[in-house]
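Database export, one record per block. Field names are fixed; values are copied verbatim from the stored entry.
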Amino acid sequence: MASKTTKSWEENYKMREITPAEWEERREMFTRLYFNEDRRLDDVRRIMATEYGFYANDTQCKKKIKKWELGKSLNRGAACAMLRIQKRRHTEGKETVFTYKGHKVSQEKLERSRRRLKDWDKEDETNPGIYIMFPQSILRKKLC
């Protein structure tokens, strides 16, 4: 029977040290599943183990997520900047789409940030790494 911290699918796998070369061989697939397809870490771990024979525990995966900068969360500054820009452009009747770390930011993610950050309209608007796309004119602007 699985312990409280071990999922049932993990019972057949043992923790071991994974070499950097092994991680690099699986980096593209891990990134695709976790970041590009926006899957939960538990799902990625299960898929990697059961379908590809690569087992890594939660801690090992989180270290790689940090090292490879695959975090899905918007940092506070980025979220506040996006929300202010969106508000300003909305009052002008303009639609705005954001990308962050190379991926489109969903409206749902911005709404969660709006609820989480009570003072989002009080910080400086600049934040590196945010791209704003203006759908009407197909212009791109990078905030620095």
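Remark 1: The radius of gyration is 19 Å.
Remark 2: Residues 11-67 form one domain.
End of record.
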